[in-house]
Task: inverse folding
């Protein structure tokens, strides 16, 4: 179950996270630029793109950045939230992970960033029952699920929910690989690798028991 207790448990300490500091800096820059000029500077758009893609800038980004910022101006005038994602996604070279990121920086509580880890976390928890692809329908499904979680977890921002889901899946998959690769594993190994509390490790172990029926003895002996 994903509720406020789950989110609280899995929000990581990002105080030393360089990636998250960049996020906060960009959020502030976007807020100021939108307030002053009703669009984004080309440089800011490129920074958002690079932040999402971990600095994997593409050639078309430099050649089309002016077109992208013009699209930002257009989507800001669009009153219907669901149509905003289409405006930015229709631009050449922009797919939903980046499109959702741009929208998130402008409307942080209305548009979650879609990411493979957060999607997998929803799958793991039974929130979605089918794999999501790269279509407007899939993004809207994802957004709907995140906003429902937000309705339940009113004390948390969309970004905090995102970080909790990301962290849960990251740690779950790391533990899954450890179990899959070893015939024998102990709690000390897991603690050293995952660097999370004993309570969270137990939660992951319980969640993984159905996945590793053939290695149930390994889990039960932890």
Result:
């Amino acid at each position: 179950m994903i509720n406020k207790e789950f989110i609280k448990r899995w929000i990581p300490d990002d105080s030393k996270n360089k990636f998250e500091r960049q996020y906060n800096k960009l959020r502030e820059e976007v807020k100021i630029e939108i307030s002053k000029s009703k669009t984004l500077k080309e440089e800011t758009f490129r920074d958002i793109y690079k932040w999402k893609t971990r600095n994997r800038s593409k050639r078309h980004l430099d050649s089309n950045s002016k077109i992208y910022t013009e699209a930002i101006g257009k989507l800001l005038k669009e009153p219907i939230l669901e149509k905003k994602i289409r405006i930015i996604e229709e631009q050449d070279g922009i797919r939903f992970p980046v499109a959702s990121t741009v929208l998130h920086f402008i409307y942080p509580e209305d548009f979650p960033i879609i990411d493979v880890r957060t999607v997998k976390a929803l799958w793991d928890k039974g929130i979605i029952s089918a794999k999501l692809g790269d279509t407007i329908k899939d993004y809207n499904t994802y957004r709907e699920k995140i906003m429902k979680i937000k309705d339940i977890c009113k004390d948390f921002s969309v970004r905090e929910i995102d970080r909790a889901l990301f962290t849960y899946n990251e740690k779950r998959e790391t533990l899954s690989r450890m179990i899959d690769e070893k015939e024998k594993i102990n709690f000390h190994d897991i603690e050293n690798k995952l660097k999370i509390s004993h309570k969270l490790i137990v939660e992951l172990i319980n969640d993984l028991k159905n996945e590793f029926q053939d290695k149930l003895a390994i889990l039960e002996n932890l």
Q: What stands out?
A: The chain has a mean pLDDT of 87.
